[in-house]
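This follows on from our talk about sequence and fold. I would like you to pick a protein and set down its sequence and fold. Go ahead and set the record down below:
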Amino acid sequence: MGTHEYSARLTWTGSTGEGIRACSREHSAELSPGTSLALTADPAFRGDPDLPNPEQLPVVAASSCQLLSFLGAASRAGVDVLDYEDDAAGGMPADSTPMSITQIELRPRIRVRGADEARVQELIEQAHRNCFIANSLRSEIRISPRIEIVY
């Protein structure tokens, strides 16, 4: 199998002529033809709080990858997943040098039928080991699930 390739096109227009404090942080990422995402800086860095920022994207990617890996593992194991909702969070300490997202915590709430909690926990761990994004990041990724078994 060859290499899977992923691309995005980023565009920004503006002027830095009046200094970094005056220039716009808004930019756009085209993920596929016709699908773009408006982005800005973190509000702490003068970004628009109503738009996503780049620091959120690794958190979203880790959460989404864990979900998809878990759904695959659960399906192969014959476990019926009914709901999956994650309140993921990432931390970037201001005093770290260089500044980086040092940890991501995934907090999925998972409702399943046809398995006990220990089996679901095994599948969560298997999914984490197989998550492409988790395997690509330097940040610590913790998973703190809440599992609900439906009979």
